[in-house]
């Protein structure tokens, strides 16, 4: 009988911890999703602007492709760091 009450005590502590932690976790995940959606939209917008800029100027096609890919990847890395920081992962 003592073991059963001991298990119940551990379960109660786990439930209390979950209810205390869950709201903060939900807010972090939702804000990370928002950052992801907005960030991908901004990256797509910047790529289109860069593409229009390159169309107006007469640059080498290989240079255009390289710069667009490089900038897109660099921005996605920054976005990834922002998201994991929002989720609470230490980035240093």
Short description:
The protein has about 90 residues and is an all-alpha fold. The protein has helices at about 1-55, 60-85.
Features:
92 residues, 2 helices, 88% helix, 0% strand
How would you portray this structure in words?
The chain has 92 residues and is an all-alpha fold. It has one domain (2-86). It has two helices and no strands. The protein has helices at residues 2-56, 61-86. Helix 1 (2-56) packs antiparallel against helix 2 (61-86). It starts with a helix and ends in a 6-residue tail after the last helix.
> What structural class should be given to the helix and strand makeup?
mainly alpha
- Low-pLDDT parts are none
Mean pLDDT: 86
Distance between the termini: 49 Å
Topology pattern, helix = H, strand = E: HH
What is the global morphology?
rod-shaped
Percent strand equals under 5%
Q: Helicity level, as a percent range?
A: over 70%
DSSP E strands, number? 0
Helix segment count? 2
